[in-house]
Automatic annotation (TrEMBL):
Keyword Hydrolase recorded: yes
Protein name, as recorded: HNH endonuclease
Organism: Mycobacterium spongiae
Superkingdom to which the source organism belongs: Bacteria
Pfam families (alphabetical): HNH
Keyword set, alphabetical order: Endonuclease, Hydrolase, Nuclease
GO molecular function: endonuclease activity; nucleic acid binding; zinc ion binding
InterPro entries with a match to the protein in the record: HNH (IPR002711), HNH_nuc (IPR003615), NA-targeting_endonuclease (IPR052892)
Domain HNH nuclease stretches: 25-80
Length: 86
């Protein structure tokens, strides 16, 4: 019985992980939509040599989904400064 519960729990966990996984295609779509610019400070890799991150507006840990409407492009500095504040 305990193994069955553990297996069901693991299956649920894996389904959630799969739903929240960011694909390369989704990442590309977000970067393209945002013009490859940080949505907070406007930085882009060409002019400032920054690394861009695709960020969850509402963190997954707080119920946010990995979907276009909840994703934004942020530079590494703005993203790390944001942390998990929301």
């Amino acid at each position: 019985m305990k193994r069955l519960r553990e297996a069901q729990s693991t299956a649920t966990f894996l389904r959630r992980q799969e739903r929240n996984r960011m694909t390369a295609s989704l990442r590309y779509q977000v970067l393209s939509r945002d013009g490859s610019r940080c949505q907070q400070c406007g930085a882009n890799p060409q002019t400032r040599g920054v690394t861009l991150h695709v960020d969850h507006i509402v963190p997954v840990s707080k119920g946010g989904k990995t979907e276009m409407g909840n994703l934004q492009t942020l530079c590494e500095f703005c993203n790390l400064g944001k942390s998990n504040r929301h």
